[in-house]
Amino acid sequence: MTLAAIPTALRGRIFDIERYSTHDGPGTRTTLFLKGCPLRCLWCHNPEAESLRPELMYDERRCTHCLACFAACEEGALWLADRAGRRIPPEEMAFFRDFPEQIGHRAFQPERCRRCGRCAELCFAGALEMAGRELTVEEAYAELECDRPFYEQSGGGVTLSGGEPLAQPLFVRELLATCKAGGLHTALDTTAHSRWPLIEPVLQHTDLVLLDLKVMDPARHRQYTGMDNALIRGNARAIAALMAGRTPGGWPLAHTGVWVRVPLIPTLNDDEENLCATAAFVREEMVGAVRRVELLGYHQLGEAKLQRLRRAAPLTGVQPPSKARLAELAGWFREELKGTGIRVEAR
Amino acid sequence: MTHPALELTRTELGYAERLEAIRLAKQEQTAEKQRVMGAMDYDDHALILPPPEYRQLVQSISGSGMPITDVLIKGIPIEATHPDGAFYGARACGRNFRSVLEHHPPYIDPMSSLAGGYMVNFYSYRKGGWKPEIDFSHLLPVREKYQLIGAIGASQHFCQDLGIGLQLGWQGILAKIERGRLLNPGSGEFYDGLEDVVRGIQVWTRTNAAEARRLAALEEDPVLAENLGRMGWINERLVNEAPRTFREACQWMLWYNMAARMYNGSGSLGRLDLLLLPYYLAEREAGILSDEEATFHLACFLARDTAYIQLGGPDAQGRDATNPVSFLVLEAAHQLKIPANVGICVGEHTDPRLLRRGVEILLEDRLGIPKFLGIDRTVEGFAKNGYPLEVSRQRAYSGCHWSAIPGREYTMNDCVKINFAKVFDVALRELMGDAGLPKSMEELWHRFEIHLRCAVEGTAASIDLNLKHMHEVFPELVLDLLCHGPIEKGVDASDALRGGVEYYNLCIDGCALATVADSFAAVEERVVREKRLDWDQLLRLLDSDWAGPEGERARLMMKKIRRYGHGGSLADEYAARISTLFTRLVVEKPTPGGFNLVPGIFSWANTIPMGKDLGATPNGRHKGDPISHGANPDPGFRADGAPSAMALAIAGVQCGYGNTAPMQLELDPGLSASGEDVEQVASLIRTHFSLGGTQINLNILDKEKILEAHADPSKHPDLIVRVTGFSAYFSSLSKEFRQLVVDRLIAEN
After folding, report:
1. For residues B579 and B39, is the Cβ–Cβ distance under 8 A?
2. What is the pLDDT of residue B258?
3. Cβ under 8 Å to B: A residues 127-186
4. pLDDT value for B26
5. pLDDT < 70 regions, chain B
6. CB-nearest partner of B644 from A66, A124, A150
7. Most buried among B114, B390, B707, B708, using CB within 10 Å?
8. Could you tell me which of B229, B190, B228, B236 has the C-alpha nearest to residue B209?
9. Who's near B495: CB < 8 A, 6+ residues apart?
10. Spatial separation of the C-alpha atoms in residues A103 and A82, rounded to whole Å
11. pLDDT at res. B64
12. Taking CB atoms and an 8 Å limit, are A124 and B680 in contact across chains?
């Protein structure tokens, strides 16, 4: 497919583009994070990715209380009241900026917010941010292409992640196709919770699948992610079969096929039962496609984001696994996958 | 004099134990310097304080032109030869320096294989930086208007050819001086100065040799006794003779380098791996030198001088000259783990194992060592000055961000700076003061160009003044001894008019690139395009230093644009334009005296003082805050702080004439010395150079550790950082300078 043939009207909704990403596939990469995810993992470190819709995030530490956001909101989603309970009109904001003690009440009504982003645009302190913007395939590719020299030197490329990229299958397919036409290595970071007719066309332009296997028991999977995993298991087998039959296409073999990613959440899924089931699934159901298993230790970076989204943290009191514990589990996995040629890494 | 006894069991002392003792002694000496001299915002030199009873604290100016607190050795007779109470010229400088050397206490560390340690900066005995009767009042207006830094009174910052000394020894150099006297009878004073320096070094060497022998007689440990005895014997030889062995060559070069440090702060060394290679090969073939022993001697050298060293790189014909000594020097720095300024070449034909080993050491030790040199770019670039590649390839990395042809090129590298932000300020205020003129970006840029040209011309005139007169004020003398030309012609290397050396290529560095690029972009976006402010409001905000809540809001607004380094931003375009303009203005014509100028982008340690004298700038910077660092984007230029974005941006602002615009990068502390991480970092380095980059300085700093050390430096006395081009103990830096490093790290993580 040539660049000229891309339907430029096709837009995707993303929440971040991270350049110089070194943990989302081989080499140095740029990772594009798409909005929308069907799962609701308790440990999610990108909670702003769950909804397809843009969301307002507020970081109180950066707020200078200039009140510009309140003055900007035309929908009444953000409003102030004085101490008598009267709603303050925009033309009076300057007074209350100088005399903040006269403000009675600050309110945000998300149901009224139409996500126009004016408040975030006027927040020069960076306290308000709209998570989620639209861009076309062409615009996305232009940003991804910037670091081509780094991909070429390092054996890297582009990774689409999220959220769940397959929640925007058309955009993702076209973007990956464009990247392939541009000679870039492509990776798809996915939970595989989607319908196969939507997945298969995407895989045609994917060199490497980064597949999450979070919890193997269906009931526990539902408990921890909001969905059971029958669809995921089926798709994982199909992905493995398809990728195993693919030639590397000029890339090193280790940079193709499937890398399985196992998030390790202490007290939730790092027990023997789940780990044995995971290793068995990889060994018996995905053989021939899996090149690497990555054990990803839980971290608490999502908590600050939840605060900025004004959402309660669904998971509390869980500490990241220690380096020693990660090393121990990595060693155990290596033993379980001995003879398969699958590399195991932990971080 | 010996260092205090260390708490080591006196069993069979191996090299590892001895190096550990040397490293601990260095830490103690550094702590003492911090207590006595306070903050040291410059290279960690290996200077040792004199014994307490000899110390005299003074306020002085360093060899790089910065005000410092220094310690003199009391009681050294210094002769003033000028009515102003100072001394000037070759004879007076040589005689007084000889006095310092002859009165310099010996320093012997029984653990080291090399004798000597230096204790004083001769600079601090000088009362005058410039001879008063050499008038430059005609340059004061332009220098004050643009706050031009350096040039007048600049010293050293070029590279000697140590090969001369290794071949001749001091006796041979004295003979050369005698021949010079006969050929150039009119240069008697100059030769007197040179001879005094050599005689002084000889006395200093002999004093230390005697001390080593004295200590040998008292030493109980057989390993150390043998070491001291041999040390005494070697150094007695080296008073006159040229070195014959690897150890002797290291010792000879150390004496020379320490003398150069003491004389005027020179820390250039150059291609150590090539200088020592003949000795190494001869002794390896004879089976009398192991790699372990060679590494130990190199480590002992590095412990006593933090000179700038290039490893690897091309020979004159373009063949890679990386050799076994290149790796041994790296190994020595790795074992010693103190500040060091070792640079390794990375190029298409350079041995890739050198890069790999350098990155392994960087990731394992986390000391910002080594740094990385984009040798292909600097060679190609320097050739654009009109030199064949065979000459260009001879340039050796020998300073913070610079190179020079050993013994043949005078450069004033890193001594001459133009603050783009001051030029911008002048241009903006002139525009605003012209009531009749409509305000526009085109007009602002036009004025910036005019004033930058004025600044370059003022700088060029200042350089000419230095080239004409510095030899009368404070001639190079020590560096002259190992240059091709000064002794033969009787002319100081800085004397460009009479051509002391063969090549004169004078460095001018631009500073505050990000500050100005972001300022231009902020004005264009917020004032011109979005009309959120008008020009008058902007000027009022700058003059008030963003006062009040509205001022703060405006400041944040100006700051929150897509900045230089983001990639594809307006500020990125301006950065490239500024660099291109500056380069053109510097290279388009020589100085009025006809000398070639070479542009670079580097601020060294001037980020704080340059900012202190500057008002608020439109990029949201407060009055008095530091300017941006070198060619780097300002911290926080991207939320992901991507090294690739920075590497692309900085590669795009290179001047391209052989002098560098280094990238200063703080890497993810999660990196380990594993195969994948080593390859990742090596790949980043190679890519930056392939895009046009010229030098990379890297730190791997743990955020918690650096914050802890910032709050209480005594908690991490051995924490070493690559500050700008130089390496230093974090605890030696002032709070302001530590803050700069912290800001870079926090923003990029």
Report:
1. no
2. 98
3. 146-147, 149-150, 152-154
4. 92
5. 1-12, 63-65, 747-749
6. A150
7. B114
8. B236
9. B467, B470, B471, B475
10. 5
11. 66
12. no
3-state secondary structure A84-116: CCCECCHHHHHHHHHCHHHEEEEEECHHHCCCC
**pLDDT of B588-618, one tens digit each?**
999 999 999 999 999 987 899 999 989 999 9
Tens of pLDDT, residue by residue over A49-73, are 999 999 999 998 999 888 899 888 8
Alpha carbons B211 and B127: distance in angstroms, whole number? 32
Percent of chain A with pLDDT over 70: 97
Q: Is the peptide bond before A321 cis (omega within 30 degrees of 0)?
A: no
**Does B669 contact chain A (CB < 8 Å)?**
no
CA distance A218 to A65: 47
Of B644, B683, B690, the CB nearest to A19: B644
Interface of B with A in 680-719 (CB under 8 A): 680, 683-684, 686-687, 690-691
Average pLDDT of the residues of chain A: 92
Q: What are the structure tokens assigned to A10, written together? A: 């096709």
d(CA A172, CA B257): 61
pLDDT of residue A4: 47
- Whether B234 contacts B247, CB under 8 Å: yes
R_g over Cα of chain A: 23
CA–CA dist B740, B719 (Å, integer): 16
Give the number of beta-carbon pairs within 8 Å between A and B. Answer: 69
Nearby residues of B7 by Cβ (< 8 Å), 6 or more positions away: none
> Which residue in chain A has the smallest CA separation from B548?
A98
In the prediction, which pLDDT does A80 show?
A: 86
Note whether B642 contacts A28, CB cutoff 8 Å.
Answer: no
Is the pTM above the cut of 0.90? yes
Confidence at residue B177, expressed as pLDDT on a 0 to 100 scale = 98
Q: Which chain A residues are closer than 8 Å to B683 by Cβ?
A: 27-28, 150, 153-154
